[in-house]
Write a structure and sequence with these properties.
By secondary structure, the protein is mainly beta. 13% of the residues lie in helices and 37% in strands. The protein starts with a strand and ends in a 12-residue tail after the last strand.
Length: 117
């Protein structure tokens, strides 16, 4: 049984064109609207920092859509950790009328594992 960090990001879009699949920003291929990228990035940061307490999240490097339907997107998010190490996580995005939800997991869907350096 896989454990996922499930975090809802329910937001009202206050501007038109809030949802444009794959066109959030130049380096991001994602279903996440531009205004929500920082919130989902925080969810990825929490997942990462729980597993690598000695190698904290530094920044988001990029995102890539693996599989997309009308209302969902299975994505790989690449982040930068300590010492220029890169990590990748799976982020499942579900779009709702009032916002999105995101589920963060390891690439192989394994539960959180604490790694010590």
């Amino acid at each position: 049984m896989r454990k996922l960090l499930i975090i809802s990001v329910a937001t009202l879009f206050l501007f038109t064109g809030a949802f444009v699949p794959g066109i959030a920003a130049d380096k991001y291929q994602t279903m996440v609207p531009v205004g929500q990228i920082s919130e989902v990035t925080q969810h990825v940061q929490l997942w990462h920092n729980k597993q690598y307490p000695d190698c904290k999240f530094v920044s988001l490097l990029g995102t890539k859509v693996v599989k997309q339907t009308k209302d969902t997107s299975d994505e790989i998010w690449t982040i930068l950790g300590c010492d220029h190490k890169q990590f990748q996580y799976r982020v499942f995005i579900k779009q709702f009328f009032s916002g999105i939800s995101s589920e963060v997991s390891n690439l192989d869907y394994s539960p959180v594992k604490v790694h010590k350096q």
